Every structure is written in C-alpha cells, then in structure tokens.
Amino acid sequence: MASVTLKKISKTYHSVNVLRDIDLDIKEGEFVVFVGPSGCGKSTLLRMIAGLEEISDGDLLIGSERVNHLSPKERGVGMVFQSYALYPHMTVAENIAFGLKLAKQDKGTIDDKVKKTADILQLGPLLQRKPKEMSGGQRQRVAIGRAMAREPKIMLFDEPLSNLDASLRIQMRSEIAKLHDRLKSTMIYVTHDQVEAMTLADKIVVLNAGGIEQVGSPFDLYENPATLFVAGFIGSPNMNVIKCHLHQPGESITALDIPELGTLDVKINSQTAQIGEKVVLGVRPEHLEIQASETGLEIVNVEYLGNESFVYLQIGKEEVPLVARVSAYTTYKVGDKVQVSIAPNAAHLFDDKGRAFKRT
C-alpha cells in the first residue's frame, strides 16, 4: 500500500499535448476513479502511473520515491486491463501463478499466494478450470487475481468491466468494492461510466481534454460541480441547463431572467457579475418540480422506468428538452402543459465560461 503523487505531469505525442500539468495526490488505501469521455487522457494517465507510457514532463512519486525512470515491475504496481488477457492453455491456478513464476519465487510461496488470492476472490473451486470453462465475470476475477497475487503496492484497473453485460457489471462492481474493503490497498480505476465512478470511488478525478476539471468525493461532484462540464457529466439523466440572464446579482440571493419561465431567485453568490450578463442555470431532474396547467411548457415525451418516470419538456426553441424525475405512477402524457418551479437552494449557476458561482 502506498500513496501516489503527480506533480505537473504532462504527455506529448509528436507535439500534441495529450495531458498537461496534472497535479494530484492519492492517499494510501484510497480508491480513486479517473472518469471522463473518450479521448480525455484517463487511460494514458493510468499507463503513465504504471510505467507503460513515458512521462514527457513532471514528476511521479510512489510513496516518497520519484519513479519516472523505473520499470512497471520496479514500481510495485499491478494492472488489470479491459481484456482479460488470460492464457487459454493454462488453468486458473497457473494463470494466477504466472507473474510469481516470472519473479522466480519458490513453489511453496507461489502455492500459498495462489491459494490466498483464490480464497479472497472466491475462485477456490475453479482453480483447475481453464478460461473457456468460465463466465466473463469469473475470468475477470482471475485477471484481478493474477495482478493481486504479486502483492503490489498499488492496483490499477483500466476499464475492467466494459466487456461484461449489464448484470455482470453490477455484480463485479460489488466484488471490486468488497475487495478494496478487505485489502485496504491503494486502487486507481479508469472508466467512462459515471455510475461506476459514483458507486466505487472514495475520490473521483474528472478529466476533460487532457486536464483535470474537478477532484472530489461522489457527493461533492454531484452536489457542487465546479464547472458546467462536470455538472453535465456526473448524474443520470444529465443536469438540466437553461440559458438565462442575470436580473440582479447578489451576495446571497441572485435574481435571474429565464426565457419561458420568468424571474427566479436563487441562493447563489453572483456579486462579481453584472446585470444582464449571460449565465447558465443548472438544475437536477429531481429538483425540477412540475404541476399540470392550461399554460406552460409542453410535455414532449414520458419515459416509464418501473421505479420512476422521466417527463421531458420543450423549452423555447432549445434542441435539448428539460427533464423532470417524477413518480413512476404519473398521469402526465405527451401534449400536456405544465408549470415549472425550481427550489432556490437547488439551483446551480455557471458563467459564460462554464465556471460555477458559489452556492450560499
């Protein structure tokens, strides 16, 4: 178990900046998830920590040691990839033991570590099976076991669940969370799936276009997004965004002019802004309250999901409708009109550069 520190880490391919000035502290035993859209640099950053990609600039420390020059083996990391990459002609036991044999450990030590790893991952009854005789979830546990058996200081996961179907992903999320709880090891996990990030992480690192947008707990990122990008990326369905103007900036209460909705007071500190300035209002679907009316916004779609329903509302000429999360037993239907209200303390406000104003 070890801490990881990134100081001004950058990666350049042929003069193209893939990652720039990444500063990040990961504590011992922490479960950190890198999340972001395809191409944001999250897998490249993980591979740089592993030693599979060279660092163009900056310093990488594992514990107190600078490791830029060290090989993956010397860094004491174990990595689990998107593909299982198991040897098909080997049994589960042989796959788990493979790295230990390469390290020239004695047979007794190898057998003990294989058994210990298999017990933790509940692979004991499967040790003599070959990969083709197992399910996708079992194969992924073997891949985790192969990395874990070497007792690395840090476990790295590069989208390990993306090849599994939906039910197996849910099961494996739970397995990985329980594994971290048992081992208390430092884990760094890459995914494009914000649900995986929210359910697994102690700390989420949101990456976008080669830089860090925000670092924080799942609660922090959901309740207090620092940018419009984070607000839209974290949460499902996405946060509603409405273009509007400042009617009256304030230190604790700000008034907004919102097309189609009128004037709204929100508990946000916008005293640094100017009257009439263009801003973006953000509100989560569960905080968008609707009530049947003869006038108002028109319902353009209703999605019934069993435990809840989503009601989509057309606002002006915007291509993206607003969405309200309501009871599963709603009677709203397409074509109905509704009045919309937003609780003042549930609103988020962003400037024209996508940066959040402070909520009060």
Automatic annotation (TrEMBL):
It comes from Nitrincola nitratireducens. The gene is malK_1. This is Maltose/maltodextrin import ATP-binding protein MalK. Keywords: ATP-binding, Hydrolase, Nucleotide-binding, Sugar transport, Transport. One of its GO terms (molecular function) is ATP hydrolysis activity. The keyword Transmembrane does not apply. It is an enzyme of class 3 (hydrolase). Pfam families: ABC_tran, TOBE_2. Residues 4-234 form the ABC transporter domain. GO terms for cellular component: ATP-binding cassette (ABC) transporter complex, substrate-binding subunit-containing; maltose transport complex. The keyword Zinc does not apply. Its EC number is 3.6.3.19.
